[in-house]
Amino acid sequence: MPRTEDVLTIFLASPSDVSDERSRFAEVIADWNRAWSRELGLRLELVRWEDDAFPGIGVDAQDVINRQLPADYDLFVGVMWSRFGTPTGRAGSGTKEEFDRALARYREAPDSLDILFYFKDAPISPSKLDPHQLAKVLEFKASLQDTGLLSWDFSDLDQFKNLVELHLTRHVQAWRKRRDQGTDVLGPSTTTSIPVIPDAPARESESEHVEEVANDEEDAGYIDLLEVFTERSAEMAEIALRLGAAQAELTEHTTKGTQELDELRIAGKQVPPAVMRRSIGRIADEMLRFTTRVEAEIPLFRTAADRSMSALVKVATLAAELAPDQVAETKAAASTLLATLAGARGSIGEFRDTTAALPRMTKELNVAKRKQVAALERLVGEFENAERLVTEAIAVIDALPTPGAPHDA
Question: Which residues fall in a compositionally biased region of kind Basic and acidic residues (predicted)?
Fold first, then answer.
């Protein structure tokens, strides 16, 4: 028996140095279709040159790709890292030309497509870095502000995957809202008849460990995912508490050392340089110990954040089929985590700034200060990344319709 489905087409554009992200993006599309295409009567179709272009002749290779790939896609997704790409004669690179074509179409008909752009912010091997190419990427990124486009940064594949899942879900939300309101949907979506495939047989056992279940995207349910999110969020909060305690301990040692020197000055005694060096040296040692603790906590926080955010992303995409109280529970848990992260990040940021403002007294202190500021900067970045994902997930939950809830007029 045939059924109909709508198709939303996504065009992926990027230079060659983000091949891993291109593969991960294709995995996200495939996973989304497995989980939601039958439920929503909607399928996401990915268009990219490695799958949809074929040998041909034209003005240049990009011209061949332009003529072969469909131009009526619904969503343009661009990704860049350190390479801008090869000039085409019409633009600075193939990716830039594809973006220009999408932007021109958007300006002509804003309801015809959406545009997303992601920039990878991660270290790269010096042997692979081309400063000229990187400068062009940075220049292009800065120019996007003039177009009114909000771009997104990511630091690794897991974060990229989570961002893409959330943003694709929001794109689908916008399309469904237009459809339900009877207005024009984004892009020229198509309707296709395809055979109905029987549902897969139920699993025999439901007693497996919750995290193993949650890692299976096809079987994971609301309770499984919420438990993983809650457990990993608790780990993130514990790390924040440990770092706060370590920060307070370092502050206590620093204050004590400063007071010792102040007491000598107040007593009218000239503080010998050797005494000052010993006192400052003890402070520098404590700073280095604190930095070591921070550096040890960063990978633990990142792992907990990745697992927590992955579960939250999946819960967010399930929100459309949850009861209102379950949606509210999920949003409350996410909001609590967001507040915890924001508070911890603010405190760490202030401590970083205080450390950076310390006077340059000795070589040992200067080295300890530099290392501590760098570690705290990385930690702040981890908290900021987690906050952005939680904020996006909450936006998805807010926008998704829930059973029995009326659609916006």
Answer: 201-212
- Residue 330's closest CA among 400, 405, 239, 235? 400
Burial class (CB in 10 A: 0-12, 13-18, 19+), 327: buried
| Nearest CA among 10, 170, 171, 20 for reference residue 98 | 10
Listed residue (183, 153, 185, 151) closest to 171, CA to CA: 185
Structure-token pair, residue 104: 């021109």
pLDDT by residue (tens digit) across 250-306? Answer: 888 888 767 766 665 555 566 677 777 888 888 899 999 999 999 999 999 988 988
Which of 375, 371, 347, 361 has the alpha carbon at shortest distance from 258?
361
pTM: 0.71
Could you report the per-residue pLDDT of 84-116, keeping only the tens digit for each? 988 887 878 989 988 998 999 999 988 888 899
> Which domains are assigned to the chain?
2-195 (3.40.50.2300), 210-399 (1.20.1050)
For residue 76, the cross-strand partners are: 11, 115
**Cα–Cα distance for residue pair 224/206, rounded to 1 Å:** 11
Length of the chain: 409
Half-sphere exposure at residue 191, Cβ-oriented, CA atoms within 13 angstroms: 4
Q: Which of 177, 347, 333 is nearest to 250 (CA)?
A: 347
CA 391 – CA 385 distance, rounded (Å): 10
- State the Cα–Cα distance between residues 243 and 6, nearest whole angstrom: 49
End-to-end CA distance of the chain: 35
What's the longest Cα–Cα distance across the chain? 96
Q: How far apart are CA 166 and CA 45, in angstroms?
A: 17
